[in-house]
Amino acid sequence: MNQTPKNSLLDAFKKILRPFIGVLLRNGVSIAEFVELIKTAFVEVAANDFEVPGKKMSQSRVAIVTGLTRKEVARVIKEEHRRLYGYEGSPQGRAARVLLGWHMDDDFIGPYGTPNDLPFDAKKGLTFSDLVKRHSGDMPARAMLDELLRIGAVEATKDSLYRVLMRTYIPPSLAPGGLELMQKALADFHQTVIINLEKHPDRPGRFQRTVWADEKLTEGELVDFENFVRVSGQKYLEEMDDWLGKKIARRTSDFIPSNARIAGAGVYHFVRSKSRFQELTEIFGGYYEEQEED
Question: What is the domain count for the chain?
Fold first, then answer.
């Protein structure tokens, strides 16, 4: 079969999806559930990004773009219930702001920039409850403390104070917060890749660089490299975080223009799998043959 641009694109996306399909299968997600999810995503993207200039988006337009029937588009829209809520209002978003405030708010850090240990509540001086109230709005301080203790971001000291151990919120794997962070991280990274892939001559792409070893690393070298990435990557991100915080702090007005957008940078560490992913023809043969179960 000739490898057309469309076939090449589909083949690339199949390979991109493989690790995520593994996560879904290990967590009991069926192909029917995934297909329904894909339909919803197609409808969402078509409705957001493929409008005709000067015309209101319609379900008929979505059907034309996606290949779904108008009846199916209407059903998807009717049955779609958003299960993820926005970053600013989510528990993980609030926890992230509390940790950042503990490290950046001058009222909660010492003379050398080290976050102060805080009592949960007290008659005098600033407390953890004050920190939560300032940086998390109406989130109960006790619930916030329980969450930060649970993920190991905070520890209790012998003096009945609480010490912050993390600058960023990293929830457990496959917890709702972890899944939301995965979604946001992948969406941000994919957006950068797509912008660079579809880059126009008159529009610069975004910074995207990768480095890897020229030869395979031994187990010991892998451990050393992982430790190096953790230390240097964290330092780099903290420098970025400080720069952004100072940039915002220097604003002379609280007015935010309508074209303002969230921006950031990310660092990730990868180790490629030892085994090569086999194509179906390698596993089952080069032609279709229904196999009998043993």
Answer: 4
